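Re-running the complex after MR caught last week's input typo. The corrected sequence lines follow. Everything else is unchanged.
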Amino acid sequence: MSQTHARTPVRGPTPRPAHSGHARLARGLGWFSIGLGLAELIAPRALCRAIGLPGRETLVQAYGAREVATGIAILASHDPTPWIWGRVGGDALDLATLATGYEHDNPRIGGLALATAAVVGVTLADVACVQGLTADKRLPPPGRFDYADRSGFPRPVDAMRGQAADFAVPADFRIPEPLRPWTSGAPASGRSGVPA
Amino acid sequence: MKALVWHGTADIRCDTVPDPRIEDGRDAIIKVTACAICGSDLHLYDHFMPGMKSGDIMGHETMGEVVEVGRDNTALKVGDRIVVPFTITCGQCDQCRRGNFSVCERSNRNRKLAETAFGHTTAGLFGYTHLTGGYPGGQAEYLRVPFADATHIKVPHGVSDETLLFLSDILPTGWQGAVQCDIQPEDTVAIWGCGPVGQMAIRSAILLGAKRVIAIDRVPERLAMARAGGAETIDFSQDNVVSRLNDMTGGKGPEKCIDSVGLEAHATGSLDSMYDRVKQAMMLETDRAHVLREMIYVCRPAGVLSVPGVYGGLLDKIPFGAMMNKGLTLRTGQTHVNRWTGDLLRRIEEGQIDPSFVITHTVGLEDGPAMYRTFRDKQDGCIKVVIKP
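Corrected-run output:
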């Protein structure tokens, strides 16, 4: 029998783990989000006291709900990228809120600075994660792999066109007869024409 | 034995699992010599198809050597070389007698689940959710083949596994996709998706005599392979598909359209796909129907839409008004593999086509999990992965 094996060599795998490091980082951020969110929901007063922002308990709880929802979405989604972008937006909100506490009379300025540094660190991790996830999805540059010789046919395409014309399309797979004139581009033989 | 086992979303591992054993007199056990990752396996990998359970063995494109046969199976003997069709067929029910093997009435052992989801049962499938029987798949060292006296394609020795393996699924699936179009010599056939099934559909349309084949994708190497097979191509990341198809057909549209994409249309390729992706995330829709919408819109009136691409559940915003008013014919379904394989095996043996052209990667089972990700992300030039256990 004739064989037309592909001439381009078949490759083994390029080393690539089943989960990318960025996907693992995203899952870690998801769990972190849930943990932080629960803390903000359960203990808003203690958190506000620690950073010298009394009276913001309701706002902190709202942030907590946001964190929990985002964390669940990251863990449950097929593609966490948009939810990590959501975290970046949330980080900006957190930093803006923390910025309002930098006043001369804040007795907890040390705690506030620590919290700000932590949020900056997490923001950097979020940005790195989202950039990595986006890069993972990017296609390789065109032209790196050449499959132009992989026709699967033993002869040029034009010589193969219609080679299976001997195949009889089963009756249950044929176009309904009334539609044939339009799909074949010519009137069906023996038909009197198209009804008005 | 070693097998590729589903543990959750994007979590497939090469595990040690119990060897299969004969459970019914019609069974056979094969030692797998080659298997492949199918594009529809990615729907399971990404967990868009419901009905998977942690511990399920993946794979429905498999071939090998018979090593054990049930006492009632007189069709096979130890040492036979067989390709295993992905649809499990009893060969005796009303649908099997009609050649509608993919809707076999007996082989789905979880028929109640299928009846709930689809209204009626469909055939059992290897490694493809508990909706279709929960049968262990063939990405493993050994496979139990239920109803093996009917569920097999005997193949000759002396032809490579790579050339024969795709009789299990993608070759007959691409072929049925083209046959469903009832291609006429003047037809222009547009094919969405240049993955493995799309590539086979392109070759099938050429062999069946289509005047023009136009293939649509965005991955450069897939488009190059499509052109090698005789297709003109449209890169949907560069061009508006509807405009280009209308331009290329003098404004009439293609007579025949084939959807080789299915439920996971590129999520950011168009506004409606992004809309679908958001609805999927909110569990308001299961499938992204971008290709179906585009086909209905661009297909020439009185044309045919053929859908070999896999859909799983509920689709939104289908322009059925256009479908009805244009008088389009829709043909779809899982592949009736054994209906076509006798003819296709002859064409392979006669040298009309060698399906191994599509293979880009060959690996061992232990590399399977990583290759799922490479294939899903279209990295490393990956179009088709063959696994040699």
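None of the earlier attempt is carried over here. The helical segments of chain A are 21-42, 44-50, 57-76, 81-99, 109-137, 157-160, 180-184. Chain A touches chain B through 60 residues (CB under 8 Å).
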